[in-house]
Amino acid sequence: MAHTDVFDDLEAEQQQLETVLAGLGPADWATPSAAAGWSVADVLLHLAQTEEAVTATVSEQGDPVRWHELGATVDEAMGALVEAERGDGPEIFARWRVARRESVAALRAADPARPVRWVATPLKPRTLATTRLAEHWAHAFDITVPLGIDYPDTARLRHVAWLGLSTLPYAFRLAGLPPVAVRAELTAPDGSTWHLGDPAAGNVITGPAGDFCRVGAQRLSPADTKLEATGPEAASALRLLRNYAVS
């Protein structure tokens, strides 16, 4: 595939989700999502809140969210924010539509070389945009799967796959293990092959890009995929794969 700009692809991913959301009815918003304890409206509220946080931290206007004050973990903090602001689905939809456009505009205008504060670590704008694309893509499934709505894979998954592979060293360190070189040979949605990582790496993960990204998003177990791990540490890499928001 031709490499495309991550800001353009973030906007396109959000637009695909917006098209789905625009067709939801009152009962759909209250439907339990695939994110435990959250309704469809709650999932979108979380996305709106985090997009607002992106704009605040990138533009340095207002007080960025102090995540550590809201819970012992990031997930607890996110849950506390949603709990505090639950509301009507159409109103949350309108809020997210504004927030997502302001967020992308702020990221586009930011100094590309200057990291900005984020939840766990400072990130450069392009990396932060990549994590936001991965976040929207993963949560789109939390919304669409329970509603029986198709949400097809696209070439934008290359950004998500890159994120998962590039943060594997961090995943290994979190597990108390020394990082190892890993490469991925992934079948893209259009049937082409994406070659990611060090070509000389002895640990190789092959298979559908969609499966690889879903494992990284914790939406699919490696055992339930068509992915194959070859090499002494490849299976461990697949087990530890996550789409972390780290540089």
Chart the SSEs and their pairings.
Blueprint: H1 6-21, H2 26-29, H3 40-59, H4 74-85, H5 89-109, H6 125-147, H7 157-166, H8 168-174, E1 182-187, E2 193-197, E3 203-208, H9 209-216, E4 228-230, H10 234-240
Parallel strand pairs: 1-3
Antiparallel strand pairs: 1-2, 3-4
Helix pairs in contact: 1-5, 1-6, 3-4, 3-5, 3-6, 6-7, 7-9
In short:
Pfam families: MDMPI_N. Residues 10-143 form the Mycothiol-dependent maleylpyruvate isomerase metal-binding domain. The protein has helices at 6-21, 26-29, 40-59, 74-85, 89-109, 125-147, 157-166, 168-174, 209-216, 234-240, and strands at 182-187, 193-197, 203-208, 228-230.
Number of strands: 4
| Largest pleated sheet | 4 strands, mixed
Q: Based on helices, strands and strand pairing, what is the structural class? A: alpha+beta
- The radius of gyration is 18 Å
SSE string, helices as H and strands as E: HHHHHHHHEEEHEH
CATH-assigned fold name of the largest domain? Four Helix Bundle (Hemerythrin (Met), subunit A)
What CATH architecture of the largest domain would you give?
A: Up-down Bundle
Mean pLDDT across all amino acids:
93
* Overall 3D shape: globular
CATH superfamily of the largest domain: dinb family like domain
SS summary, helix count: 10
Strand order of the largest sheet: 2-1-3-4
Low-confidence stretches: none
